[in-house]
Inverse folding.
């Protein structure tokens, strides 16, 4: 495995997609649009969150094996499980009150 991950693995594009989908969802909530459009936007958020987590996991895989690496991978796996299992209502609740979900772009896994 190379010493450094390719720049194509950086989650920049995934974070941009997530930011756009979050803005779209917040707009749909604000305009009180119909349920089918709301559900579609929520599914887009879930997909974007999972894509960000997948990209972050891929970057961590390039790090040397350590307890910290294992902890980060476990944290990402838990977040992936939470986002996969979250219902549309749960995700909508996270965004409807202006809160930022736990796995927002600001969250890092290198602590």
């Amino acid at each position: 495995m190379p010493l450094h991950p390719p720049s194509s693995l950086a989650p920049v594009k995934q974070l941009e997609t997530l930011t756009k989908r979050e803005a779209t969802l917040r707009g749909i909530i604000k305009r009180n649009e119909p349920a089918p459009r709301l559900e579609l936007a929520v599914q887009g958020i879930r997909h974007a969150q999972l894509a960000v987590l997948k990209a972050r996991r891929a970057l961590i895989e390039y790090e040397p094996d350590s307890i910290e690496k294992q902890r980060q991978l476990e944290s990402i796996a838990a977040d992936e499980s939470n986002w996969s299992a979250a219902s549309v209502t749960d995700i909508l609740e996270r965004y409807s009150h202006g809160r930022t979900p736990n796995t927002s772009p600001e969250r890092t896994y290198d602590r």
